Amino acid sequence: MGRRDLVLLTDHSSTEGTRDAMATAARRLTGREPVLLDARHFMTDGSRDATGRIEAVGHGTVRLEAEGRVVTTDAVVVYEIPPHRRPAFAHCQRQLRAAGVRSLGTDVEAWRAATEKNLTVERFTRDGVAHMPTITLSRPSPEAAVEAFERLGGDVWARPCVGMGGDDVFHVTTHAQLAAAARHYADLDEAWLIARDARNFTADGRRHQYRVVVLGGRVVRATEHVQADPDAPCNECRGAVSTLLEVDEIPPGLAELAIQATKSLGLPLAGVDLAAESGGVVFEVNVHPAFGRTRGVDQIAVPYVAAHLHS
User: Fold this and answer.
1) Nearest Cα to 226, choosing from 245, 210, 247?
2) Handedness of CA 7, 9, 14, 17 (dihedral sign)
């Protein structure tokens, strides 16, 4: 295989579905099939060695070996690595960065700052990125949890420090709900956060927020999510309806806020969840934003893969 073979490195156990879009983009841009490798072969949790091998073979070039396949390349597209697997993938990222390969997915600290939401809040506070007041909790006493809850006005969203897709996220407005959330996270042995409700409602009382995808400091895609249940996360997988927008259709200031959020975390590509209410606030930043079939290849996959080929 030649030096210019493009490697697409993803977690093949993921059901997110963006791997196919990235492969389509690679074929369109190069006229050839990308080499698809399962990122799990290059993960290690410290108790075991990775089953795959990475070897630098000259500045900007690596040899990857996994699943009985060997490929030499200078461009590695990393995508679709679930949050809970990212710590185990960090060693691979460091090896790719040290080898100098062309990749937008080798910044371990940026990934960690976006994945661990307590660190996201710290970065936003440091850099003045607008977000709802938030308090991090880790097995708090009942009294400490209530004090934090009351300090934020008694209307908050609780979520784990590491999660995805709205899993383990709760709208909390009573002490009983707060106690139930605390027990839930204690059972999971998870640190968690509570953030003041942004009151992001449509005129008819539905929740709504925006997903703005930023690549290289510019907005490439925007969607609006509307959730009929005001107590449910505003995620498509939780029943929210998503509508693709033109970039200039999002409320004034949100594009700039999304770009500011990605810069704060150091991510070249990110999906930023935010609302226009409460003065414009960021909820979270996603390292690998999922995207549907509607224009997703053109708006995200093609420019993302192109950034690897033309860097």
Assistant:
1) 210
2) negative
Q: Which residues fall within 8 angstroms of residue 52, CB to CB, at 6 or more apart?
A: 37, 41, 42, 64, 65, 66, 67
DSSP 142-185: HHHHHHHHHHTTS-EEEEESS--TTTT-EEE-SHHHHHHHHHHH
Distances (CA, A) of 151 to 22, 30, 145: 44, 55, 10
**What would the pLDDT profile of 175-207 be if each residue is shown by its tens digit?**
999 999 999 999 999 999 999 999 999 999 999
Mean pLDDT confidence for 201-225: 97
**Per-residue model confidence as pLDDT tens digits over 245-255:** 999 999 999 99
In this predicted structure, what is the pLDDT of residue 49? 81
Query: Directed axis angle between helix 302-309 and helix 19-30, to 10°?
Result: 50
Q: How far apart are CA 2 and CA 72, in angstroms?
A: 7
Q: What is the pLDDT of residues 113-156, one digit of tens each?
A: 999 999 999 999 999 999 999 999 999 999 999 999 999 999 99
Asked if residue 78 lies in contact with residue 43, where contact means CB atoms within 8 angstroms, the answer is: no
What sign has the CA pseudo-torsion 83, 35, 262, 61?
positive
Nearest to 149 by CA among 191, 195, 192, 187: 195
Q: Global pTM?
A: 0.94
Q: How far apart are CA 273 and CA 181, in angstroms?
A: 23
Q: Closest Cα partner for 106 from 120, 95, 117, 121?
A: 95
Residues near 245 by beta carbon (within 8 Å), at least 6 away in sequence:
210, 222, 223, 224
Q: Which residues pair with 194 in a beta bridge?
A: 135, 158
